[in-house]
Design brief:
It is built from 13 helices and 31 strands. With about 525 residues, the chain is an alpha/beta fold. It is globular and about 75 Å long.
Amino acid sequence: MGNALTPMLRTHTPTTSKIVFFGIIMMVAAGLIAGVSFARDNPYLSFRYAGIWADTIRYAIEYRFGGEASRAAAGAISTTPPRPAESIPVLLYHGVVAAPGGINVPNQHFKEQMFALKRAGWETVTLAELYAFLRGEKKPPEKSFVLTFDDGRKDSYYPVDPVLKALDYRAVMFAITKFSLNQNSKYYLSGEELKQMIQSGRWEVHSHGNNAHEFYPVDDAGNMGHFFSNKLWLAGPGRLETNDEFMNRVLEDLLSSKRNLEDTLGTRVTGFAFPFGNFGEPTFNHPEARDIVLGSALSIYAMAFYQQSDDNRFTQNYHPGGNASEHFFIRRIEVRAEWGIEELLERLDAGLAKPLPFTDTLDRDTGWIRTWGVLEHRGGMLALHPTANDTGSAALLDGTRAWRDYQFTAVVDRLAGGNIYLWGRFKNDDNFVACNFSQQVAHVEQKYLGDLRVIRGVERAASLPERNFEVAIRVRGRSVECLLNGEVIVATPFLERALDSGGVGIKGWDARPDASQLVLREVRAIPLSPATAAAP
C-alpha cells in the first residue's frame, strides 16, 4: 500500500497543497460564519434564551416556595370548583422593564402580579376561547382572562416568557408589522423571534397595524393627527384625502398587516389591536372616520381590541346575545405602572359578573365606576357630588352588564338638588333606560343609539324627601316601572326591544352649579322572572 501511495504523494505539488489548505480554511470560515448567523437569527441558540430557561426555573421555585407579597394579596386558595364565566377581562401591558417609566411596568411588579393572579385562581385563555365565549358557544371557568402585549417589543417577550412558562400561562402579542418584521431591530421582535414564540405554544401573534403608529399632517398648517382618525394632507396636490382615499388607506393598512404576519409566520391572524386604542375618534377633520374604521376592521378581523374608554364603562367583556358588533369589539384594561398587586386583583374581582340577588352595604368598593363628578366612599356611605361649578355626578356598578330582568333599589340617606336618576339596562352611554325622579315630576327615559327621549312622564303633588327614602327601577321584558318608597309612580310597557339587558347606575343632577348632593346608604337588586308577579 505504501508503494502505491508514493506516486500520488510525489505528484502532490506545493502549489496543490496550498490550494487544498486554503480551501479547507475557507470551508471552516464559511461554517463558522453560517453558525454565527444561524445562532444570531435563532433566539433558541442565544445567551438571552439561556437566560429565559434560567429565569423559568428560578420563577417556578419562587412561585412554589416564596412570593410572600403575592401570597398575601391573593389570600387563601379556594377549593370550590369555579362557576362558568359570565365575563372575561383582557389585560394590556406594553414593556416589562427593569425600572418603571411611562406605560411600562417593572419586571418585579409584573412577576408578582402574575403570581398573585395564579394563586387567586385566575387562568389565561386564548383568543379562540374568548371568541367562542363571546358568541355564546362555550363558557370557560370563572376567573378566566386574556393576557395581551402591544407593539411586538423585545422587552415584552424576554422578561415575560419565563413567567408564562413557570405558571403555564398563555399570552397574545400584537405586533406592528412595519417594525416587528425587521430583522435588524434592537427594540422590536424579528420575524424569526415571532416564529419561535408561536412554536413555544405559549404565545399567539396578531396585528397591531402597519403604518398607524406614526403621526401625519392633517392640514396645510402642518398640524399632526392619528392615522385612523383623520384625512391626511396630501402635499403634492395640496389638499386633504377624499373619502374614498381615506377608506382605501385604512383598508390597505388593516389588510397588509394581516397578510404580512400570516405570510411570515404561517398562522391565521384573527385579532387587531387599534394603535393608541384609537379607532377613528377624536378626529380633527373627518367625523365619519369612526364608522369607516370600525366597519373596515369588522370586514377583515374577527375581533378588534381597544383600551377602556369613557363611553364604554364596563371593564370586562360579556356575551352580548347575538350582537355581532359587541363580540367583535373587545375592551381591555391597561395595567398602570403604579398599580400594586392588591389594586389589580381588586379591579378584576370588582369587574366579575355579579350574580343576582345582590346587596351592597357600601362599606367597601364593590366596583363603582365614576362616570361624572366626584365619587367617594365614606363611613359606610357612597357620596356623589359635582366637581366645582358643575351640575351633577354619576356612577355605574361594574359587573352588572349581563343583568336582564331585575329590580334595582337605592336607599338614599340624603339628597340635595333637583333630580335623582336610576339607570337600568345600561349598555353604554348611548343605550340605557332611566327612572328620573325630580321634585314634582317622574319620567321613564330611554336612550337608544344616542337618541334620548321620554317614554312616559307623570306629575307629582309632593316633593322628593330630603332624607331616608328609597327609589327603584324595575325592568322586565319591555316593561319599566319607577318606584318611590315601594309605590309605582310611573310605568310603561314600551321600552325599545334592543335594550334587553344591561347594568345599573345612579346619577344626581341640578340645573344650579354645585347644588346636587347625593348620599346612598345601601343598594340592592333582585331578579325578576317574566312568569312571576313583579317584586314588591
